[in-house]
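Need 3-phosphoglycerate dehydrogenase's 3D structure for a figure. Predict it.
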Amino acid sequence: MKVLANDGISKSGILALEKGGYEVITTKVAQEQVANFVNENNVSVVLVRSATKVRKDIIDACPGLKIIGRGGVGMDNIDVEYAKSKGIQVINTPASSSESVAELVFGHLFSGVRFLHDSNRNMPLEGDSNFDGLKKAYANGTELRGKTLGIVGIGRIGQATAKMALGLGMKVIAADSYIPQVDVKVVFFDGQSITTTIVSQSLESLFQEADFITLHVPAQDGYIIGAKELETMKNGVGIVNCARGGVIDEIALIDALDSGKVGFAGLDVFESEPKPEMRILMHAKISLTPHIGAATDEAQDRIGTELASQIIGILG
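Structure prediction for 3-phosphoglycerate dehydrogenase:
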């Protein structure tokens, strides 16, 4: 049985599938050629990440397809319900990348409070000629310790983010329509641990209380944060989005950054991905990464082996 891992898969995932008797194809097939390739090569399983889209046209064109797998959490690039209606199993790996995404959130938070993203732009240009000027420009840093982190969406990734925040000595608050409360256990290197209960509160109160806000929600029909919501937040708030593009109104965000209402933003995802707006890319108060939340070796290993385990469990 053949598996097409069109957006790649870790070596550990390939080995697990091959051990289970599967042939793994890692050739990158262009989006418009996926259906033809699947049919011509008798592919039973298509694995994707965020690049390849498996929509109704591919599902209809590939009657031999048995499983569509997403290496990661969000499945907005797959017509999930339609696939299921055609008898195709749809799988993903919601737990594999939580820590990787959470660490990237804190990469953006640290970058924002200490101006690292902007300093790294300007030091190569002016470090030798304007060292004292840059030192003054980046002198007003802020500590994360003792501040309040508002987590919008306290699922697996939100909880992983909460653990890191608690370890740093931050106060954690959360808003989630589906999870009224959750026990978060922080485990230390020596096996000791602490557990704290986080009770969900309203989005409105979170926006008013948080010093920093991080989003961990699936794709939405509308904005979670727009001009109205930004107006209710603390002056100088920091906002990080490592979830999905389109949950923040980027035009409103730029206006808030320019006015000083928002102190900084960290963005791993964008409304017009994969071609983010130039105003976003060039803004001195935005820390930027190109949708790499789950892109660590450790996460990719976990994703690959978990996908392999699910496929073997379903198809034998």
